[in-house]
Queue: 3 jobs
Job 1
Amino acid sequence: MAGSTTRRGFLSTSAGASLGGAVAVTSGCVPAFTTAKAFANESANDRPGIGCIGVGSMGTGDAKGHAGFGDILAVCDVDDRHAERARNDETIGKGKADSYRDYRRVLERKDIDVVSIVTTDPWHVKIAIEALQAGKHVFCQKPLSLTLEENQLARAAAEKFPNLQFFIGTQQRSQKNLFLRAVNMVHKGLLGDIKKVTVGINGSPTGGPFPVEQPPKELDWEMWLGQAPKVDYRAKRCHYEFRWWYEYSGGKFTDWGAHHVDIAQWALKEDTKGKGPTKVDGTDAKHPVPFKDGYPTVDDRYNTSHDFAVNCTFPSGVEMVVTSRSDNGVLFEGAKGRMFVNREKITGTPIEEGWDKDQFTDADVVALYKGKPFEGHKQNFYRCIREGGLPVSDVFSHVMAMNTCHLAAIAARLGRTITWDPAAEKIVGDEQAAAFAARTPRAGYEIPRV
């Protein structure tokens, strides 16, 4: 493996690697692409071509990260201001990348091997599936999906294109001394049988009424809306604030839930197909506007839940409370002890007394990383492109967490308990709730079925 790898060689190797295997490393053979500058070799031909679709605030940060591993050949955004800023950023497009409004122009390009999707939630699955169909490796920001049905569509696409990486930007899965340590401790049974998990995700902001305005000339409002219902432009519906409208998001249930519910279910081993809660109680949830039959009755204010405690019951008897009323993070309560973890700290007697001494080894971390060495989040993505194998943030586990997040949002919107069949992945015994599992997109914005 010594020496440079040409882009053609990189592509043929990554295309030939399956999700079931990895490149063998023998004594004296240094694996290619293992450092933070994994693909930053001297020759431009050694670097994969990257297209960044969605380059707002989060998309800009992700683009800068991708630039360490390949050449950003195209940037795309429905807001020309975002696209031009990224195109001319010396750490992203360097004034040389092509700029587009329409993501399909990026997918058409044969010189682009990887796409980074950092759009609003309703666009994620559609663009990701079309990117896979176009032969691209996919990095997609969380939350992957807008609906329960989209989870299934994304999983089906990942199964159909096993030689392409489909990676989710849930970066907490790469925080070794915080979340990985917590997951390992639960997996090792060091807290005893887990009885309860509290997932603190804060509440959505409240605000409005917001006035109708003319869209900025640089913004393609029609394209921004995509599959969502056609409505007048209000600045507070757009860009970052889309998160606080059920038309485009699940509020905090999917925004922070995509992180913390994911960690909780990973630790509980409830992150594989057929797993998940059976009862989701949304009776204790408030919204900033009136609702009827699960839909807001006004259209000029944020409408996602700002105050909630949704109880999710798993077949094992574990209760997981997804709430706005506790510290942001995950609290595990076991028969032997309690442990709290978030992005800043990991605390509790089991941590203070080092219950996992000699039980959180490099081998344990590699196991959590699905056989890969521990390294940065995007580094894991590009390693898996090169070597094959599942990434630490794979689609299959992510959709299990997103099932729970969407169920919590549906139960909260309806203000009642819903029953979920994890094996069939269906809401049962409640036709009204079951109708929220999917949304009919506007004509022209349908999601491919593969």
Job 2
Amino acid sequence: MEHITLLLTIVVVTALVFDFTNGFHDTANAMATTISTGALKPKTAVAMSAVLNLVGAFLSVEVAKTISKGLVNEEGIQPEVILAALVGAILWNLVTWLVGLPSSSSHALMGGLIGATVASIGVSGVNGDVVVTKVLIPAVAAPLVAGIAAMLSTRMTYRLDKKADKKTTDKGYRAGQIASAGLVSLAHGTNDAQKTMGIITLALVAGGVLAPGSNPPVWVIVSAGMAIALGTYLGGWRIIRTMGKGLTDLQPQQGFAAQTSAATVILASSHLGFSLSTTHSVSGAVMGAGLGRKGGVVRWSTATRMFVAWGLTLPAAGLVGAGSEYVARQGDWGVYVVAAFLVASCFGIWLVSRRQVVDHTNVNDVESEAEAVPLATAAATAVAEPAGVVTTAIAAVTPPPAGSVAAVTDDDLKTTIPAPNPADPAAPPAPAAAV
């Protein structure tokens, strides 16, 4: 029992670490557009989001039930499997955060859990119908539904206020953005905080502390809500930059439409118990809002990298989860090795991130070419590239600007005639006085 108690403690702490990374990884979902349009200052935005994430954690436990009761077979799961799943999810969260790509923390957790379960008891331990109906189908449908809704809302918004004063409407839409961002934060708390509640509950069931089918205890709900709120307050600034500036250039009307559409989809899925990715929903809504404005663009190079990350999330986290489970099941030393590997990896990723710091002071700065230039002016990217040989040669012989001849004086026309060097006839002539 002592071994189980220690292992469960490690699992619970690791789950809360995942919840913390989930918070700062997904802050962009609620606040990226609000920050990019200037509706709220960066620190104010993340503080507001943190509080609402905490409130949202107490509103429902339907998603937690999906994680703890439906995704895998509780009877064959050991605490080591939960630990391994969390390792895969945390590392994928940190890697995608490091490169600034918004990916699904939910799918990272599920991928890690599926991989660890398969490595432990085989494919039979995974409920495939639940994975398809409540994970994979919503993963595809959510960005499409949110994107279409945001595109239509954006077009309707611009059509309705075509004759209105721009300054007045921008001010109103910024206020609307604040309200809709709060709604997304609340929805994120009801959806994502519950995933950690579910995984801790599953660990407690596997360790024999709770009976199968139990709901999350109160202390699990409170600790999960606090962990995700703290992570949200720290702000995942790298992903906020990508979501706010990298996918498209948003105006207040678009930001309001995107956030309202995404919040509606997320809240509906939470009510139905679908373990939906808020990242997929918000990203789809942002792209839809970008396409909804006349002349608006989506930077598909950034979107493509994001889609690739989405596709890799489940298998990548699953492979890490499976490998971690194999080591952890070897005994106490295996559990310690897995825990030490996780700590060392997290510290290493943090050190790499310090080479180029992104925080609230520079989150709206644009650095990469894909972020810096809209698709409509892609030809202008040539000015940011190093000059080639031909360009350099042409620049070297460019004639002076018109009117420069008038500035030439008599002194400029003077030259020198070399005189012979009597000391050494073969030497080059010494300079002579000007004439």
Job 3
Amino acid sequence: MTDEMMDAVEKENVVFFATATKKGIPNVVPIGFARPLDNKTILLVDNYMNKTRENLENNSKASLVPRDASECPYQFKGTAEIHTSGKYFDDAVDWAQSVMSKLSPKAAILLKVEEIYSVKPGPDAGKKVD
């Protein structure tokens, strides 16, 4: 991810996170806690994931698109890791509770970005960027 992409994801207050079952049944949910950790990793906080979490436990492939595609017209695809303890989990809990003290995150999800595609309308829509 470029600095511009990371800044746009950081500034979004909602991203759309897509997963699928082993059989390929899709699921997409809005996530209010997502931010880049570096140019290959996006942290998401699992506060209320149910189907999404089940999907990730059985199929770690996932995709993320920022809510405002005009600001950040990219789809980030990769492999998700679930952390229920350790540094990433502790960081996710601290972040979520600093925003809303009543939250009790269940996990930190790390999306390891492997591919980036354009979602900008026009002739380059759907083309691989990285």
